Every structure is written in structure tokens, then in C-alpha cells.
UniProtKB/TrEMBL annotation:
It is found in: Cytoplasm. The keyword Ion transport does not apply. It comes from the Bacteria. InterPro entries: CheY-like_superfamily (IPR011006), OmpR/PhoB-type_DNA-bd (IPR001867), Sig_transdc_resp-reg_C-effctor (IPR016032), Sig_transdc_resp-reg_PhoB (IPR011879), Sig_transdc_resp-reg_receiver (IPR001789), WalR-like (IPR039420), WH-like_DNA-bd_sf (IPR036388). Residues 133-230 bind DNA. Coiled coil: none annotated. The lineage of its organism: Bacteria, Pseudomonadati, Pseudomonadota, Alphaproteobacteria, Rhodobacterales. This protein is a positive regulator for the phosphate regulon. Transcription of this operon is positively regulated by PhoB and PhoR when phosphate is limited. This is Phosphate regulon transcriptional regulatory protein PhoB. PANTHER family: PHOSPHATE REGULON TRANSCRIPTIONAL REGULATORY PROTEIN PHOB (PTHR48111:SF40), REGULATOR OF RPOS (PTHR48111). GO terms for biological process: phosphate ion transport; regulation of DNA-templated transcription. PROSITE patterns: OMPR_PHOB, RESPONSE_REGULATORY. Pfam families: Response_reg, Trans_reg_C.
Length: 230
């Protein structure tokens, strides 16, 4: 799996030592990692990098993790973003509050890093299936990440590696509108400088590849916003 294809996990933790331990273990598991020390910083990064999962500490300076979770879960573009809440609060009422605010999982400190990694992988199996080798389907299009093949209406399609990653991104979240900047980060990676116009070129190639044996163009242009599948 190329660096750009690896799922990105955003760690939101104000304790530097805990933040770095989490980052080290997540990177060892093969994930891309972004770090935030405050809730405000986390909200900015969510918009910039479009993480696949957030590990969010409850007790943060200024804006609490609970409030960040609430904000993310009430936004249309991030309401399905999986969040694992970390907290020293072990009472049942606190667990319930965290989950009812929208957290997908709740882990009490001190926690087992091995167990936390397992919980991260379990959530990503639901939200980034292609990243863990699961087949994706949308209407008459099938993408198999294991064999790196794409089929439409039973016929094999020829796609370049970049077009394959673009299609995988779209098929994991059909209907979601991706901006050019978000696609650049997801498909090319944060560490590579590519002009946003490059996205348009590869979208054109993807459209041509998807329609090479006929059929309607499933990629939708959203004026002023970006692109979506369906």
C-alpha cells in the first residue's frame, strides 16, 4: 500500500508524551498520523487533511473533547467520521455521555495500546474497507483492492494507479463531495506538492476509463466544491 493509500488517524491529545506514544504505535501499524494538542487545532486539521479516524482525548484545554465530538457529529461532512474517545473518567454515566455525544468507541485511561490499536482497526474496517482489502461496489462498478482490478457491468476496466486510488476514495463514501485539496491529500499524500489542476486531469482520465465500455459517467462535478460519485 502506497503512503497516500494508508488510512490517516488524527490524534487529539494535549499530553505530549501520550500523544507521541500513540503516534509511534499507529505509525508502526502502518497508519499515517496527524497530531493536534487542542480542540481548535483539531477542527482545523479535520478540514485540511480529512482523517479517516480521530482518537480524541476528553480533557483538552479550552474546548473539551466532548464539545469537539459534538461539533464533528453535527456537521454533514464529518458526522460519519469515526471517533474513539479517550478519558480517565471510568464511571458509567461518563461512558454513556461520551457515546451519546457521538463517539463510536470509549476507552478508559490507562489503556492497553494493543487493545486500542485493535479498536482502531475494527472501526476502519467499517469506514475504509478498501484499506483493509475489502471489495467495494457501487451500482455496476466493482473494485477489488486485493487484485487491484476494477469491473463495470462484469467487464474489466483499465485504470492507472492514480485513477484507481481516486475511484477507491469515491467508492468508500459514495455521494460525498470531495474538494480538490482533499483529494490531493487522500490520493497523492500531504508530503507531495501537486497543483490542484492535476486533480481535474486525473478525474477526466477516470471518467474516460469508467465509460470505456459504455455506460453513464458516474462522477459528478459539484460547481465550486469538487467531485462526488453518484
Amino acid at each position: 500500500m502506497s503512503p497516500a493509500e494508508r488510512p490517516t488517524v488524527l490524534i487529539v491529545e494535549d499530553e505530549p508524551a501520550q500523544r507521541e506514544v500513540l503516534a509511534y504505535n499507529l505509525e508502526a501499524e502502518g497508519f499515517r498520523v496527524a497530531r493536534a494538542a487542542t480542540g481548535d487545532e483539531a477542527l482545523i486539521l479535520v478540514d485540511e487533511i480529512v482523517p479517516d479516524l480521530v482518537v480524541l482525548d476528553w480533557m483538552l484545554p479550552s474546548v473539551s473533547g466532548i464539545e469537539i465530538c459534538r461539533q464533528l457529529k453535527t456537521r454533514n461532512d464529518t458526522r460519519t467520521l469515526p471517533i474513539i474517545m479517550l478519558s480517565a473518567r471510568a464511571e458509567e454515566v461518563d461512558r454513556v455521555r461520551g457515546l451519546e455525544t457521538g463517539a463510536d468507541d470509549y476507552v478508559v485511561k490507562p489503556y492497553s495500546v494493543v487493545e486500542l490499536m485493535a479498536r482502531v482497526r475494527a472501526l476502519l474496517r467499517r469506514t475504509r474497507p478498501a484499506a483493509v482489502g475489502q471489495r467495494l461496489e457501487f451500482e455496476d462498478i466493482v473494485l477489488d483492492p486485493e487484485t487491484h482490478k476494477v469491473f463495470r457491468d462484469g467487464q474489466t476496466l483499465k485504470l492507472g494507479p492514480t485513477e484507481f486510488r481516486l475511484l477507491s476514495t469515491f467508492m468508500e463514501k459514495p455521494g460525498r463531495v470531495w474538494s480538490r485539496e482533499q483529494l490531493l491529500d487522500r490520493v497523492w499524500g500531504r508530503d507531495i506538492y501537486v497543483d490542484t489542476r492535476t486533480v481535474d486531469v486525473h478525474i477526466g482520465r477516470l471518467r474516460k476509463a469508467l465509460c470505456q465500455n459504455g455506460g453513464d459517467d458516474p462522477v459528478r462535478t459539484v460547481r465550486g466544491a469538487g467531485y462526488a460519485l453518484g
